[in-house]
Amino acid sequence: MALELYFTFAIEALQAEIAAGKYRNLRTFQYEYMRGSTEAYAPQWVISWDNDQVWHWVSNTSAVPFGGPGIWSAHSDFAHFSATCMYFGAELIDAREAQGLEDVPIGLIQSAIGGTMIESWMPNASRAECSDLENTTMLSTLYHGMVAPFANFSVAGWLWYQGENNCHGIMGNVMDNSGYGCALPALINGWRNVWAPASSGPDQRLFGIATLAAGGSEGATQHMAGMRWSQTANFGRWTDNPALPNTFGAQAYGTSVPCAGRRALAHNLRPCIWGSTVCSPLSMNFAWTSFESTMALSLYL
């Protein structure tokens, strides 16, 4: 589920805060765009740069006017950016300020594409851990092309917002290594092992999960209970979860009502999903990114 900032209620409020001088240390990087992807059949350990893929100060991109629905070429880099990642970054800065911590640069990296399945984002070794997986034609191609290129970056964590295209499949259970209940923990462990091999000890970097909203285009409502249960690795919680250590989550909700030409998903993520308590354990200088199905990873700057 690749949700662009443009399709959220709070974009104008965030723009106003940035224009007033807030979030001056927030920087963003977009690898591809929400509507394009880089797929590969082997890990691409180096980013394929082009002229559009550069770091931006959010104070600059948020000041660029953007067009209405369907006029994608007129949208600014700010409007195109992952809402999950951007609002998390803003709340992280707010949380650090509330704790009296130094205002440090925060980098947000987006590597995201909508309408994908979790199997495409899993390393080959992670897929081998689980039975009853669905996607047998795009195996690991997005992991190879859109995750592996960042393996040489020092990251502090990831954000994951995905599931719509797996919603009708086998939810499974982490206890018998089946379905989505196995796939999500396997993906998390696989990514952590890429950035910090198991030989170096357990990886402590955080992994954040945003659940699907239960209405609208997010998937059939009757499958939501199973999907949300699987997104906790079948423990019903993210805290004190042996299958998902150092993982946190947030429930998303949607109104499915048009608003100002945008989908009114309550991916007004800012007040509804990310709160300061989510960010409070983090006290280092870092950057977060967002992949998608949204993967977000963070870099030390």
Low-confidence stretches: 257-301
Mean of all residue-level pLDDT scores = 76
Number of strands: 10
Shape category: globular
Q: Describe the sheet with the most strands.
A: 8 strands, mixed
* Class by alpha and beta content: alpha/beta
What is the H/E string?
Answer: HEEHHHEHHEHEHEEEHHEE
Our estimate of the beta-strand percent is 15-25%
**End-to-end separation:** 28 Å
Helix content: 25-40%
Rg computed from alpha carbons, rounded to a whole number of angstroms = 18 Å
Q: Count of helices?
A: 10
- Oligomer state equals single chain
What are the salient characteristics of this protein?
two-stranded antiparallel ribbon; 10 strands; 10 helices; 301 residues; disordered C terminus; globular; eight-stranded mixed β-sheet; alpha/beta; 25% helix
